[in-house]
């Protein structure tokens, strides 16, 4: 990532917390997702301000905005790790900035970057797609179909999500019993676990 200079401006608590949540999730978030995760939303003047400062990119999809951290926003977050807690941030804010300080020490000691710590929850993305396709029922869904519904997710990340899900006792990644029914798309979409190509995902209680 190229060097990006961040503006030295005062941000409200809401604006700061939105940036930090986007950093932690490492993906695009809607206001509904921001509210579910942290009890905050980015709209009105707060959204316009972060957009104008090029800290957050907001794109309207349908009737809702989707927010994503920009390169400049990522730089701001990295600098915020060593920032003193804002005045009147309260106990919760104080605890948050203590955690950020500890994270900074870890990164400095390990030589890692924020991107090494905060990665998208690809297992959750795959599970959400499964829940939509299965209508939250425990039915086998072909990996080829799941990949189609997550076509913006790189193949390696999709595979990582399946591998993470497969560690759970309520998740089953199985081979198609009737190999004659497999299409070329099914074979290309298969993931190899234990030396065996698997084609179907079943989650007993999709969330």
Concise summary:
The protein is of the alpha+beta class.
Features:
207 residues; alpha+beta; Arc Repressor Mutant, subunit A; 2 domains; 3-stranded antiparallel sheet
In the predicted model, the low-confidence regions spanning at least 5 consecutive residues are: none
What is the CATH superfamily of the largest domain? Winged helix-like DNA-binding domain superfamily/Winged helix DNA-binding domain
Any idea what the shape is? elongated
Could you tell me the number of beta strands? 8
DSSP summary: helix tally: 10
Looking at how many chains there are and whether they match, the oligomeric state comes to single chain
Question: Could you say what the CATH architecture of the largest domain is?
Answer: Orthogonal Bundle
Strand order of the main beta sheet, please?
Answer: 1-3-2
Instruction: Report the sheet-strand fraction.
Output: 5-15%
The N- and C-terminal alpha carbons lie at a distance of 35 Å
Number of domains: 2
In the CATH scheme, the class of the largest domain would be Mainly Alpha
Helix content: 40-55%
CATH topology of the largest domain: Arc Repressor Mutant, subunit A
Backbone CA Rg: 20 Å
Describe this structure in words.
This protein has helices spanning 13-25, 31-38, 44-52, 71-80, 90-110, 114-117, 122-134, 143-149, 155-165, 184-189, and strands at 29-30, 56-61, 64-69, 141-142, 171-174, 191-193, 196-198, 200-203. It has two domains: 13-117, Orthogonal Bundle (Arc Repressor Mutant, subunit A); 122-203. It is built from ten helices and eight strands. The two termini are 35 Å apart.
């Amino acid at each position: 990532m190229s060097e990006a200079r961040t503006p030295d401006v005062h941000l409200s608590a809401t604006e700061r917390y939105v940036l930090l949540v986007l950093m932690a999730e490492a993906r695009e978030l809607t206001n509904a997702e921001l509210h579910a995760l942290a009890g905050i939303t980015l709209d009105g003047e707060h959204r316009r301000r972060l957009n104008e400062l090029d800290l957050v990119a907001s794109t309207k999809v349908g009737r809702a905005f989707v927010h994503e951290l920009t390169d400049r926003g990522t730089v701001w977050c990295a600098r915020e790790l060593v920032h003193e807690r804002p005045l009147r941030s309260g106990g919760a804010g104080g605890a948050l900035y203590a955690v950020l300080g500890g994270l900074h020490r870890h990164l400095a000691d390990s030589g890692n970057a924020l991107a090494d710590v905060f990665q998208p929850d690809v297992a959750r993305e795959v599970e959400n797609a499964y829940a939509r396709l299965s209508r939250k029922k425990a039915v086998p869904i072909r990996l080829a179909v799941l990949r189609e519904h997550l076509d913006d997710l790189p193949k390696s990340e999709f595979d990582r999500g399946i591998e993470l899900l497969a560690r759970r006792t309520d998740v089953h990644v199985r081979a198609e019993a009737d190999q004659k029914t497999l299409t070329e798309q099914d074979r290309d979409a298969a993931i190899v676990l234990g030396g065996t190509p698997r084609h179907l995902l079943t989650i007993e209680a999709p969330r």
